[in-house]
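ok so heres the complex, two chains, lmk if somethin looks off
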Amino acid sequence: MKVMYVAGLMAALTIPAAAASAQAVTDPQIAAIVVTANQVDIDAGKLAAAHANNPEVKKFGELMAADHAGVNKSATELVTKLKVTPEENATSKALKAGGEKNVANLKSLKGAAFDKAYIDNEVAYHQQVLDAVDKTLIPSASNADLKALLVKVRPAFVSHLEHAKHIQGTLAKGK
Amino acid sequence: MTTAGARTIRAGVMVLGLLLLSCSRSAPVPPPQPQTHTIVIEGMRFEPADLTVHPGDTVVWMNKDLFAHTATAEGGFDSRQIDPGGSWRLTLQTPGDLPYICALHPTMKAIVRVRTGG
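and the predicted structre for the whole thing:
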């Protein structure tokens, strides 16, 4: 189930190179991808904050909900200022569907199994989002402010990824 | 010793005394005026990440990031949550090295060194 979810996530975030070069994602599409990607992690974070067994996992869930809400607040303010209407697209739709599947999977788990599934997914998710930010979103953004926002939030994804990997290691040692 | 000789020695001692006095007045470096240093938190980093201050100086952490952060030294200071756009200040008195992190994002590491002199 988890492997299937991660594979689906990778497919969602991987925009085929040919498609990307022929038709780069537009700013309204990037806006929808950014908002959806953050919302997906906020939803999973809130679930972990409420149901995680390990206190470190619980704290990480709270942090994800707060940090990604911070990104979305800035993204929403920016698109409002730029008068850009986020435009749903294949990537944002796949992200949303993947997020819902992940939450449904997590809801069926308890205790250490929940913690492991949540953290494993967070590691994969942040790695994939980071790749998408570097390979697709930043290169495709045409508005300077939108590009600047992506550049500004990038270190947060790096920090979250390292943090999640650290917790993943701790959980593995605790076995 | 003649009176004239004694006078010469007394004069010499006085000149030497004055010289020493003037030297002693100019030699000590006055204690530096307390300064305020700013550390900007942005892009998941403390900038500067390595700051040296004098005892009595004040450090202000300004959060220009999109997220809440803290400046937390284990067994030392703790800003608690600094919201985006917010700041926190601390006057440091005791010499020593104070490594600190963001308690929310432990990948963020920095150090403040409190040093006398220089």
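quick notes: The mean pLDDT of chain A is 89. thats all i got rn
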